[in-house]
Amino acid sequence: MKKTKMILGLSLVAVSGLILVAADHVDAPAVTGNAADITDVYTFQGQDTNNLAFAINTQGLLSPNATAAATFNENVMIEINIDNTGDKVEDLVIQAIKRDDKMYFFGPYAPTATGTSSMIKTAAASGSVTISTYGSTPLIAEKNGMKFFAGPRDDPFFFDLGQFKAILAGTASGFNNPGTDTFGGTNVLSLVVEVPKAMLGTSSTLNVWAETKKKQ
């Protein structure tokens, strides 16, 4: 099973604060609520302006009580795909897979295969981080200019679902300011990796999308 989210047109020379996001909190029953369920994809310039950060959120709508028990699945790989030639085919991948209490990262590197099937190139290992637990101080690892995080976070996506439904029904003409955060108080499992831009090629524009892929 594969789950994909796509972001188009990320500038490598983006101004500070630029955030691109794709979001989807409700999926088919076979995907919703498990480790393969991607809710959001964020790409933004790092605090170090020479870096880009990639954040993939999974398993949305976790209540505080459910968050402590939520885990990444050792049979589900999270893959960030990066197209730096404009042909909508991944030229680079960053892959992450859980083993015991750690998340292991590979890439960015040119994949041996593209599309729905992937293999992990173990020689392209880039680092690992101990998975943070709910309520604890976030654990961040650094290696070769890259930074890594994996663990639960408050869902950062803001959307007023009730007002959106009212607009669709014709009973409201627009969103309120401030609106009501439908996802307030819920959590996600986040995977974050920060990468030097020099590792991503020389193009001024990237296409970025994320997938979860189950071990066959």
What is the structure about, briefly put?
The chain has 216 residues and is mainly beta. It is built from 2 helices and 12 strands, in the order E-E-E-E-H-E-E-E-E-E-E-H-E-E.
Describe what you observe in this structure.
By secondary structure, the chain is mainly beta. Helices cover 6% and strands 45% of the residues. The protein is built from two helices and twelve strands. It has a six-stranded antiparallel sheet with strand order 1-12-5-6-7-8, with no helix packed on it. A six-stranded antiparallel sheet has the order 2-3-4-11-10-9. Strand 5 and strand 6 form a beta hairpin.
Outline? globular
SSE string: EEEEHEEEEEEHEE
- What's the pLDDT, averaged over the residues? 87
Beta-strand percentage? 35-45%
Q: What is the topology, as strand order, of the major beta sheet?
A: 1-12-5-6-7-8
Main pleated sheet: 6 strands, antiparallel
Structural class: mainly beta
Number of helices: 2
Q: What ranges have pLDDT less than 50 throughout 5 or more consecutive residues? A: 1-19
Write the layout of secondary structure elements.
Blueprint: E1 2-11, E2 19-23, E3 38-45, E4 51-62, H1 64-67, E5 76-83, E6 92-99, E7 102-109, E8 125-130, E9 141-143, E10 146-154, H2 161-169, E11 187-196, E12 205-214
Antiparallel strand pairs: 1-12, 2-3, 3-4, 4-11, 5-6, 5-12, 6-7, 7-8, 9-10, 10-11
Key terms:
six-stranded antiparallel beta sheet; 6% helix; 216 residues
